[in-house]
Amino acid sequence: MKIVILGAGQVGGSLAEALASERNDIVLVDSDEKTLRELRDRIDIGVVNGHASHPDVLMNAGIEDADILVAVTNNDETNMAACQIAHSLFRVPTKIARVRASSYLQYPELFDNQAIPIDVLISPEQLVSEYIARLMEHPGALQVLDFAGGRVQLVTVLAVQGGPLVGHQLRYLREHMPKVDTRVAAIYRRNRPIIPQGDTVLEAGDEVFFIAARADIRAVMSELRRLEHGYKRVVIAGGGNIGLRLATKLENRYSVKIIERSHERCVFLSEELSHTIILHGSASDQELLLEENIEDTDVFLALTNDDEANIMSSLLAKRLGARKVMTLINNRAYVDLVQGGEIDIAISPQQNTIGSLLTHVRRGDMVNVHSLRRGAAEAIEVVAHGDERTSKVVGKKIEDIDLPEGASIGAIVRETENGSEVLMAHDDVIVQSDDHVIVFLVDRRQTRHVEQLFQVGFGFF
């Protein structure tokens, strides 16, 4: 496919890198010539220097024969204008835009072909706040991802000495929990992937990715580590768009405080939120944290736009006794440096946004794409179509499907007369048409193979 990406920032650059490695024709547009030059030297893409919404610049990028436009500049208005121009002048089939301002997002009727023609709207703030809210539901999880509308979840946990399954083979899990069906999709041991087998012995320190029905997640987690008590008291550092969205989601279930530097923003937050306590000050102010009993805080969330401020306030909160610390980090180079030390979870908005974008630019009927381990691995939800004659997966047992090396099917969600049925992917399960199949890829470079596997032959049409 030919894909024109507007904006060479963290999201645009990462997306270009991901898509170029899948043999797409990528052109990246940005007004920063130095950034474009650095990206072009590193990856095989075309670049155009200029204003992203100007028609002549878009023409230089080859917009006339583009399949997809992805507008992810830092300016909402530029992204919206570019989609309008791509539709009105060049009839680009699919237009994806990042829009941050909630003022626009609360009017979904704005974004259709009769108004501003955007086919897919991406809101990083919304994606990140939803992601953090899922983490709050499962204390002790490093990552929680939804599939099939939340009926199935992929959860990442760190196996801890003393967990019932630690030191035992994975097959022991089924014996120990006969009424709970789950599947371990992958294990990372000392940062190296292991494809799990029944005789794989789990070790303390293993990063375990498992898939289960939403209702069974907590039971499976209890096999890998001692269950943590639910969270009650939450402190959010930063009352920006993410902090506000998250507080709105959490304030009716938790005791929430927001620390915000701007007095004007504090006034706004107090008008928008009903049960959240708004504190004017700096999250790096030790006296303020102590006054607010940081030692009794269950979760400290650093969500400002400043990576360094987030890291420093998180380290301070942890030293002063906060039970769990989650930190928003935009710079990908910092994520590996800080996670797993005093900072419990480093949250990358780019990784969340990239996964959502990839869902809409991949071939095949992709419902969800989640980018994992800084983009090295992926979890995909794809719908199987066709029949035994036209499909390479429909009508086959899972053990007979020609999956690429490092890929495994974790679960299937099937619609029945009685509602949705969640099937763990055991070898004898047969894939049916319209099944939602959840595939885990240790090596995301195998994504193309999975796309081809689920494509339907011409006989189907």
Description:
This protein is an alpha/beta fold and 461 residues long. It is built from 15 helices and 22 strands. The chain has helices at residues 10-20, 33-42, 55-60, 76-88, 102-105, 124-137, 171-176, 217-224, 241-250, 263-272, 286-291, 307-319, 332-338, 349-361, 447-454, and strands at residues 2-6, 25-30, 46-49, 68-71, 94-98, 120-122, 143-147, 152-158, 182-189, 192-194, 207-213, 233-237, 255-260, 277-280, 299-302, 324-328, 345-347, 366-372, 377-383, 407-416, 419-424, 436-441. A six-stranded parallel beta sheet has the order 3-2-1-4-5-6, with helices on both faces. Strands 14-13-12-15-16-17 form a six-stranded parallel beta sheet, sandwiched between helices. Helix 4 (76-88) links the parallel strand 4 (68-71) and strand 5. Helix 1 (10-20) packs across helix 14 (349-361), helix 6 packs parallel to helix 9 (241-250) and helix 6 (124-137) crosses helix 14 (349-361). The two termini are 22 Å apart. The mean pLDDT is 90.
